[in-house]
Amino acid sequence: ILNYDIMARFRRRTCIILLLFILFICSIMMALKTLRPDRAGFGDPFGLGLLPELQQREVLLDNKQNLLNRVQGDTATRVSNLHSVAVNTMKASMSSVNKLEEDLSSPNYNFHIFYYSWFGNPQFDGKYIHWNHPLLPHWDPKIANNYPKGRHNPPDDIGSNFYPELGSYSSKDPSVIEAHMKQMRSASTGVIALSWYPPGMADENGEPTDDLVPVILEHAHKYNLKVTFHIEPYKDRDDRSMYHNVKYIIDKYGAHPAFYRHKTSTGRFLPMFYVYDSYVTIPEIWANLLTVSGSQTIRNTPYDALFIALLVEERHKHDIHRSGFDGMYTYFATNGFSYGSSHHNWASLKAFCDSNNLMFIPSVGPGYIDTSIRPWNNHNTRNRVNGKYYETAFSAALLVRPEIISITSFNEWHEGTQIEKAVPKRTGQVVYLDYKPHKPNVYLELTQKWSEKYRKEQEQWLM
């Protein structure tokens, strides 16, 4: 009997211990299960769910789980999973936005790029504008007779030697403006020098575009770009009209966050205006506007600004100084075409500007060809040499350590200076140039490369 009692107690103790052990094992299993996501496949490393492409898979799996729960009638789980789908979708969306921001280089506000908003097509403008540019005759009638006349016939025949990836677009098309801003930001430029005519005015082949400025400012702001104005030689441009037009621009657009203001050496933040073909107006007229003692002076008023004149010939540097301008730019993308556009003259121009408290802004370009609108002008063509011409221009600009570099251009398609994306195209007897063997965005990438190089070198200049 004693042995029986001992054996019975032993068996009970053993059962209790075994039961406790089983409960312990079950607890461990449950704990491990709660630490590991149910949907994780075997061997899935921790953190992959944070990646956007895997979040999409998470959302799909959540949807499948929701369907199963509906069949089972599990309302609580269904609501929970719907919330999970919403959270994961939001995370995926935010990741996409952040990825887009990461892919775009930071804007360089010392890189200014000339931009034209004068293009139109039937969809947005009722007709083609600028793409149907006429063939301009040579000034010598004997030479002019040797070349074709007429105008281009879009969309297959346009006034350009290259063909845009976006086709014969309208500058009013919001999707085009968006694409342009994204391209300029990807190139690490920071300031858009917008070609501008006063309200109701335009070039001889275009139509007024001032009403497009607010849209451009909005899209530019989205990409942290700034907008300055490249004032064209409109009819009767003089000291009086310039005063009123500068006042108009600053009053109407000056409060916008995308409106460009340049920090001067004295710490002031002033608007900047490029003045194209400034040399056609005599220095005495400009001095009325741009010197403190001038009869129409804009100096020390709420409309004071930095005015940058176009230098073509060497003698223009003295006229620019006498006129009261704050600096000079060279615009043309043709090395050797003019004194100002010749790279080997930039060092002496920079020295002149430094000694006279002026800004020197060299203009670099990827090449030049305008024979689609000036068929007689082949001698001024500058081959792109697969990007080498562009890089040579940047290298020459960096040698003179400029405060600002301007780029000719983003989309002056008529003169073949664009860095906007272009594609191969052949239509009938027209074969367009292209950027091969490189991709359509090669000149955007080269601009970004030199923008970063400029930043690094500028840090050394300032040390």
TrEMBL record:
| The EC number(s) this enzyme carries | 3.2.1.130
* Membrane spanning stretches: none
Read off the CDD domains from this record: GH99
The reply to whether Hydrolase figures as a keyword in the UniProt entry is yes
Catalyses:
N-{alpha-Glc-(1->3)-alpha-Man-(1->2)-alpha-Man-(1->2)-alpha-Man-(1->3)-[alpha-Man-(1->2)-alpha-Man-(1->3)-[alpha-Man-(1->2)-alpha-Man-(1->6)]-alpha-Man-(1->6)]-beta-Man-(1->4)-beta-GlcNAc-(1->4)-beta-GlcNAc}-L-asparaginyl-[protein] + H2O = alpha-D-glucosyl-(1->3)-D-mannopyranose + N(4)-{alpha-D-Man-(1->2)-alpha-D-Man-(1->3)-[alpha-D-Man-(1->2)-alpha-D-Man-(1->3)-[alpha-D-Man-(1->2)-alpha-D-Man-(1->6)]-alpha-D-Man-(1->6)]-beta-D-Man-(1->4)-beta-D-GlaNAc-(1->4)-beta-D-GlcNAc}-L-asparaginyl-[protein] (N-glucan mannose isomer 8A1,2,3B1,2)
> What Gene3D superfamilies does the annotation carry?
Glycosidases (3.20.20.80)
Q: Which Pfam families does the record cross-reference, listed alphabetically?
A: Glyco_hydro_99
One GO CC annotation, please? Answer: Golgi membrane
GO molecular function (one): glycoprotein endo-alpha-1,2-mannosidase activity
Q: Does the keyword Membrane apply?
A: yes
Please classify the protein's predominant subcellular localization into one broad category.
Golgi
Membrane disposition:
Single-pass type II membrane protein
Top-level class of the enzyme under EC nomenclature: hydrolase
Please provide the record's keywords in A-Z order. Golgi apparatus, Hydrolase, Membrane, Signal-anchor, Transmembrane, Transmembrane helix
Localization, UniProt = Golgi apparatus membrane
Q: Which domain of life is it from?
A: Eukaryota
PANTHER family associated with the record: ENDO-ALPHA-1,2-MANNOSIDASE, GLYCOPROTEIN ENDO-ALPHA-1,2-MANNOSIDASE
Q: Please report which protein family the annotation says this sequence is part of.
A: Belongs to the glycosyl hydrolase 99 family.
Kindly provide the name given to this protein in its UniProt entry: Glycoprotein endo-alpha-1,2-mannosidase
Species whose genome carries this gene: Centropus bengalensis
UniProt lists the gene as: Manea
